[in-house]
Amino acid sequence: MAPRTDFPPIRACLFDMDGLLLDTEDLYTLCINLMLEKYGKTSLPWSIKAKLQGRPGPEANALFHQWAQLPISDSEYLAELSALQREHFPTAKPLSGVEKLLGDLGRTRWWDAKDQSGAKNGEKGASDGKKAQRVHVALATSSNAVNFAIKSPNWTELFSVFEPHRRVLGDDKRIQPGRGKPFPDIYLLALKTINDSLEEGEKPITPEECLVFEDSVPGVEAGRRAGMRVVWCPHPMLKKEYAGREKEILAGRMGEAGEVDVHQLGEIDDGWADYYPDLTNFPYDRYGIIVPPAEVELDKSIQADTASGPTTQDTKA
């Protein structure tokens, strides 16, 4: 089919965390392989890891146990794995391009700042005359609150772009059990957290005005099922594992959720999703995003916004 090209500008970016913002996927593999080695099992293959990525802990653990058949109980497994994760997760670092991308998106709040007459900077237009608008951001990760707290304390400034009330974690009680990725609920909830906190009079953001950033196949399907545009930025080994099936992944048609609500899925080459090897030199123009120049950080209005905004670390969704 001919790809769609008449999309509205993106007004919200919704981010996964593991393997997308932070390089935790290799750390997950390390922890699991240490356990597998301890019990005389073979290392975790990417054919299995690909199924675990992006899913909430309970679902991922069930799939892992079915494959690994470790000679220990679920509680023993979780205790040993958690100890390894507490040791290794604090070493996680941002992936290539992430810090600049989040900084650029955070700076778009300057378009909402008002001059003395009460007019927003964005209403005056960018340097090329185009109307500019703030791009809101939210976090939508399958990591639970405990793991988020372990991974994020070294990167408080990085995560400060996500206001605490716009962080949806994997154990958020508003998401029904069994409705994590690849179902759309977490991304629809992340959008709701944004719309519920927009300034009075600001038009609610629609799903097609959202851009989901994902590295996992279930996560891409979740974004597509939510009716949102998607950026897929996978681990190189995941890309290799699914070589030749990229178009199915971008359409959300890998069957991760089974034959459920198939009307939510995309079509091959429909233009709603794109693959990028990493997040460096992100093509803002393609998504109608206008980033103000770096010097606006010196503007008193944006400094006041930063000072009054929530920047403390929060581990509750």
Kindly describe this structure.
This protein has a six-stranded parallel beta sheet, with helices on one face. It is globular. The C terminus is likely disordered. With 317 residues, it is of the alpha/beta class. The longest helix is centred in the N-terminal third of the chain and has 15 residues. The protein has 13 helices and six strands. Strand 4, helix 10 and strand 5 form a beta-alpha-beta unit.
Q: What's the short version?
A:
With 317 residues, the chain is an alpha/beta fold. It is 36% helix and 7% strand.
Stretches where pLDDT is under 50 for at least 5 consecutive residues are: 306-317
In DSSP terms (H or I, runs of 4 or more residues), the helix count works out at 13
Number of strands: 6
Q: Shape from CA axes?
A: globular
> What is the chain-wise order of helices and strands?
EHHHHHHEHHEHEHEHHEH
Question: How much β-strand is present in the residues?
Answer: 5-15%
Q: Main sheet, how many strands, which sense, barrel?
A: 6 strands, parallel
Question: Can you give the mean pLDDT?
Answer: 91
From the alpha-carbon coordinates, what is the Rg to the nearest angstrom?
20 Å
Distance between the termini: 39 Å
Helix content: 25-40%
Alpha-beta classification = alpha/beta
Strand order of the largest sheet: 3-2-1-4-5-6
Feature tags:
disordered C terminus; six-stranded parallel sheet; 6 strands; globular; 317 residues; alpha/beta
Topology:
Elements: E1 12-15, H1 25-38, H2 46-52, H3 57-68, H4 74-88, H5 98-107, H6 121-124, E2 136-140, H7 145-151, H8 156-159, E3 167-168, H9 185-195, E4 210-214, H10 217-225, E5 229-232, H11 236-241, H12 246-250, E6 273-275, H13 300-308
Parallel strand pairs: 1-2, 1-4, 2-3, 4-5, 5-6
Helix pairs in contact: 1-4, 2-3
